[in-house]
Write a structure and sequence with these properties.
Layout (H helix, E strand, L loop, with lengths): L1 H32 L3 H5 L6 H11 L4 H18 L7 H67 L1
Helix pairs in contact: 1-4, 1-5, 3-5, 4-5
């Protein structure tokens, strides 16, 4: 019975080591899949809406989120099985990546809001200026009519 226990312990240790490697690999993949800082800093576009749409696309975490989810699953499994001797570093790295993802999500939402607000604002401004032009034109027509009536009365 002693030999079976030793084999089981060895197998458990090996599985725990593989689980830790899976968590570390998933965390590395998540970091690698994050958007580059330059991708959100340097955006080429012809107008504000183009810049916002480019930024919104650059802020898409894509596969990085899936890798972080995998890391969390394996970490949780290892923690519950008490498989890790020391997993504080993994917990800290998961927390740090969670914070980055929260920042990305917040920025993505804000950019999306702006991308829908800016065209509406442009339309409202164009309408306001068009109305002002119409008012000036109507005033000009009214003044011309009044001048014409004065000229007829003077004759």
């Amino acid at each position: 019975m002693g030999q079976t226990t030793l084999d089981d312990d060895d197998l458990f240790d090996e599985a725990a080591s593989e689980m830790r490697e899976d968590v570390e690999e998933s965390l590395a993949n998540a970091r690698d899949a994050l958007p580059e800082g330059d991708a959100i800093w340097g955006v080429e576009a012809d107008n504000t809406l183009g810049v916002l749409n480019g930024l919104r696309s650059a802020l898409d975490p894509g596969e990085a989120e899936e890798h972080l989810t995998d890391a969390k699953k394996w970490y949780t499994m290892g923690e519950r099985a008490d498989a890790f001797d020391d997993a504080d570093d993994l917990a800290e790295e998961i927390k740090a990546l969670d914070e980055v993802f929260a920042d990305i999500e917040d920025a993505h939402e804000q950019v999306s809001d702006l991308a829908s607000t800016v065209p509406e604002l442009r339309g409202a401004l164009d309408d306001a200026h068009a109305a002002a032009d119409e008012d000036e034109e109507a005033e000009g027509d009214a003044e011309a009519d009044a001048d014409a009536e004065e000229a007829e009365a003077a004759d």
